[in-house]
Specification:
With about 400 residues, the chain is of the alpha/beta class. It folds into two domains: about 1-185 and about 375-385, Glycogen Phosphorylase B (Rossmann fold, 3-Layer(aba) Sandwich); about 200-370, 3-Layer(aba) Sandwich (Rossmann fold), CATH 3.40.50. Helices cover about 45% and strands about 15% of the residues. The chain has 16 helices and 13 strands. The protein has helices at about 15-30, 70-85, 100-105, 120-130, 135-155, 160-170, 175, 200-205, 225-240, 255-265, 280-285, 305-310, 325-330, 340-350, 360-370, 375-385; strands at about 1-5, 35-40, 50, 55-60, 90-95, 115, 155-160, 180, 215, 245-250, 270-275, 290-295, 315. The strands form two sheets. Strands 3-4-2-1-5-6-7-8 form an eight-stranded mixed beta sheet, with helices on both faces. A five-stranded parallel beta sheet has the order 11-10-9-12-13, with helices on both faces. Helix 9 (about 225-240) links the parallel strand 9 (about 215) and strand 10. The longest helix has 21 residues, at about 135-155. The protein is globular.
């Protein structure tokens, strides 16, 4: 089967959750013998067309002089598709983002479409971006309009949580939500594993050995709730508890979060460590005594929770979005009462005091391997996406 996928970017150019999922799907399809192409927005000094791991990467560039935000991606993407796929008609379109999906639909209007919603774009814009409220609302409305076109044109809509399905129904209605198929997300369980000795890895990382170490990794944007995590750290510190909190990630809130740490005099126990490499990440997951997710809104799967638990590490989280669908299955008491700083502080404090249930690292990992491994969950997603499982209502809980 010839399959054309669309994503914001190729994962090898720019890393991100949606791009990683799309690339995993591409590689899985190739391994099953399909002929696969990926349409994405290009980056500087990358070729317009190249083949990587059996996948044809097609990159387009939006002209800076094109001010028509409603259709400039469609036009640029469509131009590249017509140029490179003149003798290659796909049997299936699989869009992972609305802008690329709209371009594919325009060029191949009669080809069957599968659409994956990683998070509803209107909500993503409003919860994640920093900027003027009026402009954000306009961008959110435009993006939602394009997304709705893709959803309406699709034969099947794939999502990775029941929470996401509920949001699609709320935003787009019953008719569109009736096409939603839920399969869990996944992680590379071979990459994230427990370590023989946490203290040894902590020493390698330069982490302290005389107090609990908490780790969080997020994009530094509003919806991730990192300001509340820092406020919670101040509350825990005020109770006389000793701990170290490392926050990895980059984003527009870096300066304000650094200012917050300084204003609260937390510089000796809260460290913003910036971007984390893949090699370091696996060590940090495994070395941390607990991984903390302070999400304020819109967590449509919770990949980082699965990655951390694959390394055998307990996850302390707010009960937001799809997170209870994952964490609640292994230990409901690892979920805070709500997403406030006070509740996050109570959860962290209870963990430090040993009041929360403890699960063996091997058991935490076994839960992830059984439910969220690439071997199982990715294959189920691909089977659904190409139509092998259509007609069955799948649930991820």
């Amino acid at each position: 089967m010839r399959i054309l996928l669309g994503a914001n970017h190729y994962f090898g150019d720019i890393r991100g959750g949606g791009m990683r999922v799309a690339w995993d799907v591409c590689k899985c399809l190739v391994s099953r013998g399909h002929d696969v192409a990926l349409l994405c927005e290009g980056t500087e000094n990358k070729p317009e067309s190249e083949r990587v791991e059996g996948v044809r990467i097609l990159r387009y560039h939006v002209s800076k002089s094109d001010l028509n935000v409603l259709s400039r991606h469609q036009r640029a993407g469509g131009k590249v598709l017509r140029k490179h796929l003149i003798d290659w008609k796909p049997d299936l379109l699989w869009a992972h983002m609305p802008l690329q999906g709209a371009a594919m639909i325009e060029v191949f209007p009669k080809v069957r479409l599968t659409y994956t919603v990683h998070s509803p774009v209107a909500m993503e814009f409003m919860e994640s971006e920093v900027g003027n409220g009026v402009l954000l609302k306009l961008k959110s409305w435009l993006a939602s309009r394009i997304e709705r076109k893709c959803l309406a044109s699709s034969s099947l809509i794939c999502v990775h949580s029941n929470y996401t399905k509920s949001q699609i129904k709320r935003i787009h209605g019953e008719e569109i939500s009736s096409k939603v198929y839920v399969t869990p997300g996944w992680t590379d369980v071979d990459k994230f594993r427990p370590v023989m000795c946490r203290e040894t890895v902590k020493f390698e990382l330069g982490w302290p050995l005389d107090r609990p170490v908490l780790f969080s990794l997020r994009r530094l944007v509003p919806r991730m709730g990192l300001d509340r995590l820092i406020e919670a750290a101040a509350l825990v510190r005020a109770q006389g508890k000793n701990f170290e909190l490392y926050i990895g990630g980059k984003g527009p809130l870096l300066e304000s979060l650094q200012q917050q740490v300084g204003d609260l005099n937390l510089g000796d126990c809260v460290k913003l460590i910036g971007a984390v490499s893949e090699a370091q990440l696996s060590k940090m997951y495994a070395a941390a005594d607990a991984f903390v997710i302070p999400t304020r809104a819109l967590e449509c799967f919770g990949l980082i929770a699965v990655e951390a638990m694959s390394a055998g590490t307990p996850v302390l989280s707010t009960p937001v979005g799809a997170l209870p669908e994952i964490i609640g299955r292994i230990e409901p008491r690892w979920l805070a009462r709500d997403n406030s700083a006070q509740s996050i502080a109570e959860l962290i404090g209870d963990f430090i005091d040993g009041k929360l249930p403890v699960h063996d690292s091997s058991k935490i990992r076994e839960f992830v391997v059984a439910n969220y491994s690439q071997e199982n969950a990715l294959q189920a997603c691909v089977q659904a996406g190409i139509g092998e499982l259509q007609g069955t209502a799948a649930q991820s809980g």
